[in-house]
Amino acid sequence: MSRAQLFRATLFHTRANPFREAGALQSEDDGALLVREGRIAAIGSYETVRRADPDAAVIDWRGGIVLPGFVDAHVHYPQLRIIGRLGRSLLDWLEQAALPEEARMADIGYATGTARRFVGALASHGTTTALVFGSHFAPATAALFDAAAAAGLRIVSGLVVSDRFLPAPLRQTVDRAYADNTDLIRRFHQRGRLLYAVTPRFALSTSEAMLEMCQTLVGEHEGLRVQSHINEHHDEIRKVAEEFPWAKDYLAVYERYGLTGARSVLAHNVQATDSELARLAATGTSIAHCPTSNAALGSGIFPLRRHLDAGVRVALGTDVGGGTGLGMMKEGLQAYLMQRVAADGVVLDAARLLYLSTLAGAEALGLADETGNLCPGKAADFVYLRPPEGSVLDLVLQHASGPEEALAALFTLGGAESVREVRVDGSVVYQG
Ligand SMILES: [Zn+2]
């Protein structure tokens, strides 16, 4: 057995869901993480962990902070290059900004370049696991999986399917979508750290036949995930109601085709009804909350309290390029800010922000046995943060009077410039 590694730093992780359990946050000021064969063997104070394995090689990161790798529960890889097209609402933004760029993914050279930059950017922001919308084109979606495998990240993704509403180059026939999905599943699902997600873009762009095809795929292959969008903007919701007159609400469309449940993650749900929330909770369907996107596109303020009260699982997603960047700490801060101005907002303390950006995403993806926190037995997926010397964050951290203050400061001021090293299964996937 190879020699264990002991990482000495200030440590934070959530052992459980802090919305439900007091004391879920574990913090160790002079802490240590013991890693053996890519798994976490122990976590605790440096003194305790050192005694447990005096032979471990010590990596001295004192003065730095180690967190679990971030989990981004909703992001679009083809939109990396169009971050920041501000001033539009959802349907205009799709038409003018997002969809023209998504059409460029027909060029495999362009797609491959974007995929590599995208995966590299996830890692450089400390994200180790992500649920990613692929491309409408199979080769471009394969390019993302290839880039993710080369970089070593945990990526769950799939071909985006649509057969109406969108410009012609982004539409597939149902037969073609079925064949392409089947091929991609065979090539990438459960290969290394990759998983496949059936990905209807949203109800508006998919016919009933296409949704039925998605249901068929889920039935034909073990362990697939499902991702889509729901209840993002009033105009979109009205159009969905027109297209599916038999559906009592937006969620009912996905329900009819078996696309909800514990392996499904639906983004946004800004305009949710009480009935939808009750059914999401009953089926264990997760919602990806994307606060920078909701604000940038003017979609609205996420009703977090109603989701929590109903018992719906919620994780954070950046929703690039509707969102404003790949940083999960920034996304956490935006969630906090929007809840502060919401009429019935939930105060998101540091433990809750850390949970929403790590363990909650792992739970939504059915990967909580593997990643999401630093509990012994899990994969050694973590990020080492140390703000640039002389930066404001550096100053604030030195001045923090306790661990929760330090963690809150990190979410307030931290970004990619503070990410020094990122590991997945104990292997380095990024060094800054
Ligand atoms: Zn999205």
3D structure, described in words:
The strands form two sheets. Strands 5, 6, 7, 8, 9, 10, 11, 12 and 13 form a nine-stranded parallel sheet that branches. Strands 3-2-1-4-14-15-16 form a seven-stranded mixed sheet. Strand 15 and strand 16 form a beta hairpin. The protein has 16 helices and 16 strands. The longest helix has 17 residues, at 108-124. With 432 residues, the chain is an alpha/beta fold. It has helices spanning 46-52, 90-103, 108-124, 138-151, 174-188, 208-220, 234-243, 250-256, 274-283, 291-296, 304-310, 328-341, 350-357, 359-364, 392-399, 403-413, and strands spanning 5-14, 25-36, 39-45, 57-68, 70-76, 127-133, 154-158, 160-161, 194-200, 225-230, 264-268, 286-289, 313-316, 382-385, 419-424, 427-431. 39% of the residues lie in helices and 24% in strands. The chain is globular and about 65 Å long.
